Amino acid sequence: VLAGRDLTVFMAGARPATDATATESPLPPPGVFK
């Protein structure tokens, strides 16, 4: 678990993922579940 400066460096300015910007997952390649 990171906190403080270590967490800030790890995130590198990434924005949090939210439901407002969610998109559907891509379909898996054919035959992947066979």
From TrEMBL:
It comes from Streptomyces coryli. It comes from the Bacteria. Residues 15-34 are annotated as: Disordered. This is Spermine synthase.
